[in-house]
Amino acid sequence: MGGSYLRVSSPPSCIYRFLPQRFWSRGARCPVSTVTPGVGGGRPGVPSQGLTPPRHAPARAPHLAQCLRYSRVLRVVLSPMETAPDAPQESGGAQALLSELEARVQDVVRASSWWERHGVDCAILALSLLSLLPGFLCLRSENVLVFVLGITILGVCHYTLTVKGSHLATHGALTESKRWSKIWALFFVEVCTAFPAEYAKYGHVKIHHGYTNVLGLGDSSTWRLPCLNRYIYMFLAPLLIPIITPVVAVARLSNMELRVALRTLGLISLGLYSHYWLLLNVSGFKSPSSALACMLVTRSLLAHPFLHVNVFQHIGLPMFSRDKKPRRIHMMSLGVLNLPRLPVLDWAFGHSIISCHVEHHFFPRLSDNMCLKVKPVVSQFLQEKQLPYNEDTYLARFRLFLNQYEEFMVQAPPITELVGLQ
Q1: Do 35 and 48 form a contact (C-beta atoms < 8 A)?
Q2: pTM of the model
Q3: Domain range holding 229?
Q4: SS3 assignment, position 184
Q5: Residue 102 lies in a domain
Q6: In sequence order, which residues have a C-beta less than 8 Å from that of residue 24 and are 6 or more positions away?
């Protein structure tokens, strides 16, 4: 949105045609104002912008209607020379761009070996599984440094399996076999993460990816907790994620088929009890309370960056209404942001969540390693076509959210409309 908090990598001169500026007037009925380039106060190359009152949402989306009722609508109108003659040509132009990008990426994928497509990420997950035993054994030591090393190993391995593994398995990016994809999803999502695989796939793949930054659907609103102030949310709330996750999972069981619910409950119980049993019998913990405390510590080791990353990469970027959402290529280039390479988070969460999130949203079935490999192709293409390629640092986003918490996490976001895109 505003240039004060969104950094675009190597922006072309006309990039700002896609980036609406915030307008904070809360007038009840504000007329649409336009600025014609080169006339009056307008500047050449700057899109006309105006504010229109929010429209009523369809009855099928009550949550969206509530958001629209309190949201401002930001309408971005491109200069006349950028406006397509008619709507079908706009759709065709956007589809042609997306098809060209897909063709370039497919060329890279076809030229890649199985090791590059799947092997690297499978090896990381296998190494994490093998590292669990040394981690549990380190907890037997009375040496503080060795004990802390064990906590660190178990914590990093836990997030590698639950975040990276679950994410790749949910998208079917670990293998090309549908049968094995389902097996890996059950293992990583239900056994390791303690969450129903069916809901993970529906909420993440169908809703978040299908309606990225669409208000009331894929707008990451599940991460908003307006009842918490900024310091509790940013610093204390992440510690509750290991407790909230299985509680939410159990609550969802009532909405599932009996057979699926029993399977999910059994796999979640197996994962939690296995962790508890290993702490008692391998690590040598003497009491159940100490074992449970260790479980909480290891499962919340990277909870802070996990929560932060989930809000940094979408919230604060343009949001769209369901009936006025742009074409996919514009939706993804505007509404997704990459963080820089961060070794620990890249390992534990995966490139597709950290440094290649834009690429992941364009091509969700690619593995982390392949997202990293096609990143130069995607970034070069978007910049060639004068489309946004959003990047920012973790620290910059953290400061931004801490300073503008009310705007991003409490208030309803303004709705962005793009008019005249080719």
Answers
A1: yes
A2: 0.78
A3: 114-306
A4: helix
A5: no
A6: none
